[in-house]
Amino acid sequence: MERRSLTATIFIHAFALLLAAVIVAPVIWLFVMSISSTADLTAKPLHWWPETVDLSRYTRLLTAVANTEGAAFVAALFNSLRVAGMATIAALLVAIPSAWAVSRTPTVGWSLYAVIATYMLPPVALAVPLYMALAALGLLNTVYGLALVYLTILAPFTTWLLKSGFDSIPREIESAAMMDGARLDQILRLITLPLAAPVMATAALFAFLLAWDEFFYALLFTSDLRAKTLTVAIADLAGGRVSDYGLIATAGVLAALPPVLIGLFMQRALISGLTQGGVKG
Amino acid sequence: MSSSWINTRAWLLMLPLLIVMVAVIGWPLIDTVRLSFTDAKLVGTSGNFVGFDNYLKMLSNSGFQRAFLTTTWFAVISVTAEMVVGVAAALLLNQQFYGRTVLRALMILPWALPTVVNATLWRLIYNPEYGALNAALTQIGLLDAYRSWLGEPGTALAALILADTWKNFPLVALIALAALQAVPRDITSAAMVDGAGAWSRFRFVILPYLAGPLMVALVLRTIEAFKVFDIIWVMTRGGPANSTRTLSILVYQEAFSFQRAGSGASLALMVTLMVTVLAAIYATVIRKTAGAN
Does A48 lie in the same domain as A94? Predict the structure, then answer.
């Protein structure tokens, strides 16, 4: 490392502190709001730390008593889990064979660019026909209909991610097995897929998070407890006449918890994915 | 194995994906084009063919022109801010200091926060009566009376841009940081020995390494910003007085609030056209970057 003057060192530490504050302060404030009493949150001047810590909102949101915020939140939580889970599994099922095919057959590679291009489409370009089709099929306001629609986002994304994963597994291993007389399904089942397990797990996690965060389609295609997801439930809370700001913050903390934990633990995989995407396209 | 069989096999393996893509993307896109030439309603009448009526009305509509300007303004300002703050943060994170590993890990926080949660959080911060921003600014003495940041047309868009920038600049920072770490140490040292100052080292030695990844981040972020819906819907719903109504919000209102599927579809296709132009730029940039490497 090059030598640095004392002033430069102080400067760098001051800016690092500033950056840390900018990043962390809003997130900590969300948490503080969730454990502050309403009196603390509406005090003037504002109490930056609650006089009494109030955890009751977490119990309120996570207990499903009929016709309470809790019932709505728990229902939304399960809807989000089901929609994201189903969409992720369906996306992987169609993405794995095609990603492998594209990776091993360069002549069909152009089709992958067509698939990735659709990922750039604005959701508004598809929303009206999708709404009409779901209505005609009786799938509006169901978790199945929403999971189906989420394939528009998850299928291209996972195919692209898995293709670069398969690219990094040497073909020679597959050719060697083929020489030894293994059938294609045996090669995939016994050699390629086990080797690709880590990248498939990463793809599944990212796909799950994409579905978990999705808001636009969920807002359009769901209308009550049967299918509303967490993002819609939170937007309802934030936009409604709820005067308990702490409750809104609590819902936010709970919804943010899975992606934030995954983000912190998966940092390495995430950043390499981002930079690869940046370089390779 | 013959190459024709390998090709056939590839297409067979891709068949499930292709069927899904045609069903949920291909067909809806074509149907949006068809609808854009009709006066169809969202529910009920399937509508009559009206030619280019929807497009002509849209282009002369002041609501559309204003939404286009609002979207462009939102995209240009927020993406510029994200790039500048992101690169500055990356340069900082590339230095040695105490707690660097922790700070790098924390950068993931805003990115990992779901957009709706981020929007809700900032809506609470901007709250006119009890919000943290009003409280903080008054307590330091920068503000005399509480303001309604999201309620005044003069400040709403700026407040949205700040919330969006906070969420997205860390992504730019992480991409730039990865690129910075690829800059060989001896080159920067050599430049320093030759007497290059901090600015010329950044401009002539480091920036060429950053340019490729940053261009990609720039174009991808611009496309995302052009499609913006979630953060605006949760924070302002396009208000006050339509001052934050972007194109996607306008499409939502036209097609779903007013149930005018036909003109909603023509608006949606205009957004698609703009995004496609940006995506074409993206493809060119990628090819150039790949060629340079």
Answer: no
Q: Do residues A99 and A160 share a domain?
A: yes
Considering CB atoms only, which of A44, A238, A263 is closest to B108? A263
Residue A3 lies in a domain: yes
How confident is the model at residue B3, as a pLDDT? 78
Are A45 and B138 in contact (CB < 8 Å)?
yes
Q: Specify the higher pLDDT residue, B253 or A240.
A: B253
Q: Is B240 on the interface with A (CB under 8 A)?
A: no
Q: How far is A135 from chain B (nearest CA, A)?
A: 9
- Domain check: are A110 and A40 in the same one? no
Q: Which parts of chain A have pLDDT scores under 70?
A: 1-3, 269-281
Residue A60 included in any domain:
no
Supply the ipTM of this predicted assembly: 0.91
- A50/chain B closest Cα distance in angstroms: 14
A30 and A84 together in one domain: no
Q: Which amino acid is at A87?
A: A
Contact residues on chain B for A155, CB-CB shorter than 8 A? 17, 20-21, 24
Size of chain B in residues: 293
Query: Does residue A129 contact residue B27 with C-beta atoms inside 8 Å?
Result: yes
- Domain containing residue A185: CATH number: 1.10.3720.10
Secondary structure of A138-181 in HEC code, one letter for each residue: CCCCCHHHHHHHHHHHHHHHHHHHHHHHHHCCCHHHHHHHHHCC
Stretch B73-81: mean pLDDT: 96
* Shortest alpha-carbon distance between residue B19 and chain A (Å): 9
Q: Phi, psi (5° rounding) for residue B38? A: -125, 170
Query: What's the confidence (pLDDT) of residue B291?
Result: 59
* pLDDT at res. A191: 87
Would the CB atoms of A122 and B276 count as touching at under 8 Å?
Answer: no
Minimal Cβ distance to B135: which of A30, A46, A151: A46
- Asked whether the beta carbons of residue B103 and residue A16 sit closer than 8 angstroms, the reply is yes
Alpha carbon of B198: minimum distance to chain A alpha carbons (Å): 12
In this structure, are A220 and A254 located in the same domain?
yes
For residue B10, the chain A residues in CB contact (below 8 A) are: 101-102, 104-105, 107-108
State the DSSP string of B53-116.
Answer: HHHHHHHH-HHHHHHHHHHHHHHHHHHHHHHHHHHHHHHHHTS--TTHHHHHHHTHHHHHS-HH
Cα distance between residue B65 and residue B126, in whole Å: 28
Domain count, chain A: 2
Q: What is each CA distance from A35 to A40, A42, A223, A256, in whole angstroms?
A: 10, 13, 30, 16
Question: What pLDDT does residue B285 have?
Answer: 75
> A228 is in which domain, residue-wise?
69-280
Residue A62 resides in a domain: no
CB contact under 8 A, A275 and B227: no
Q: Are residues A146 and A275 in the same domain?
A: yes
Identify the pLDDT of residue A280: 37
Does CATH number 3.30.1240.10 belong to domain B55-292? no
